[in-house]
Mechanosensitive ion channel protein MscS (candidate division MSBL1 archaeon SCGC-AAA382M17), 294 residues
Amino acid sequence: MFFYELLVFFIGLFILLFIRRSLKSVKNRGESFISKLRFFEAVKTKVAFKSDKKQKEKALEGYNQRFSIIRRTILIIYVLIWILILITPLFDRISATFVSVIAAIIAAIIGIASRPFLENLIAGVVITFSKQFRVGDTVLIDNHYGTVEDITITHTVIKLWDWKRLVIPNNAMLNKEMVSYTTKDSYLWAHVEFWISYDADIFKVEEIALDAASRSLHFARTGVPRFWIMEMDKEGIKCWVAAWALTPTEAWYLKIDVRKRLIQEFKKNGIKTHAFNLDGVNEHFFDQDCNEKE
């Protein structure tokens, strides 16, 4: 029995040291990732009350608090299991019925009283180590576009593009589908969709679209913009123009900039959109306006 306890003690001590080292490594990587973040917004703004430094400090504080709880929980559970294995030989001296009754009572109390908390706690641990999303990631979730601002031990906070906060329990976050724009890298192939009339010169449209994307200050200057005809409908032709952007924020402004340039150039060159083909009234007024100018 003495040899058994000695063996379990040293093996358990080795595993404990390994767990502590692994947890420290994970914590350091998480802190390093947050420290390198430049901003915590899906759409970058310049306002007097905004402070990226304070947001970063808050994110680091939240991460450390969450990881501290996770670390203590893991270590406590491990130590309890370790002690349980150590005293296993003593179970022969205790009534099995007594142990079963006590264990059942404890399990029932814990299960009823703390089920929601435990579910979110476990989900928080899974999120922390799975890295399916992290603080600072730009995401689209339930049609909400924003940045992961904080991940606590029980819930996740998404800072939406309009600065509202979407708070989701961690248990629900694990079951949600989301689009992540920054999990692997921040580059985005941003595209703008628009419709034109069949009367329009498609080669002129392509020239205008590519020029609009190339001239934008938010174009990443990586590769070249591309133009595609995506659909030929009875109302008109659906087109896409796409270009690379360095970040989700740059992609947001790139698309806005391209839309403005397209509208301006289409008006200047007399290029009709598909709206003029939807009914005879629009076409009639357009022709009438052109005749008046002539």
Observations:
- The first strand starts at residue 138 and ends at 141.
